[in-house]
Amino acid sequence: MIGCTQQDEHEFPRVPVTLDRAVDGDTFKVIYEGKSQSVRMLLVDTPETSHPKLGVQPLGIEAKEYTKQVLEQADKIELEFDIGQNRDKYSRLLAYVYVDGVMLQESLLEKGYARVAYIYPPNVRYVDQFEAIQKESQRAAIGIWEYENYVQEDGFHKDEYESETVADSNNDSGANVNSDQQPDRSCTIKGNINSSGEKIYHTQESPQYTATIPEEWFCTEEEAELAGFRAPKK
């Protein structure tokens, strides 16, 4: 993915800027046109760290620290604008951000610190590219994608994250001694009940398969569904 960005390096103009300070996982300040101005990365969204209503969201601090470290260690920071407006309603610069030639949006998506969001044409130059990277992170279940319902269409849901971490803790400490013993080697499907009482089954292709401690084992998906279990949401 990064190779594609580097090949297009001279296709669109980039503006060199100097870092002022990091603000959030997807926002920071630079010296642009002689003064400090905020930059909001196009097409991505990271969990909040200082939102007046949402407060600190899970993995928000990690996303912020990653962005801060990458920017502070950079020899060169550049902004690339899309064909639409280059400022939002808060007067923040809207841009694709390059750190020593590598697009920061791509790095955040690859690490599982960001989701593709705020898709407002015509500023959609790299949306397909970003969504392809996001799918790989979802498949690997890393970062914000580790917890099934944490990321939803309208943003990040702290309550879902916390319910799943509690379920994981309960599974680790109070699982049925016999539940993780396969009754038959051909029965590989794991049935798990989370803290909300949802019955979810995981096949060997599921991202959470290895980490799942089963309450029940099933030989087929049909068998799991007949027992009231559903497949994990994508």
UniProtKB/TrEMBL annotation:
Polar residues composition bias: residue spans: 166-186
Keyword Nuclease in record: yes
SUPFAM superfamilies (alphabetical): Staphylococcal nuclease
Pfam family, one: SNase
TNase-like domain segment(s): 13-147
Annotated transmembrane regions: none
Keyword terms: Endonuclease, Hydrolase, Nuclease
Region (Disordered), start-end ranges: 165-186
InterPro entries: SNase_OB-fold_sf (IPR035437), Staphylococal_nuclease_OB-fold (IPR016071)
Protein name: Thermonuclease family protein
Native species: Paenibacillus shunpengii
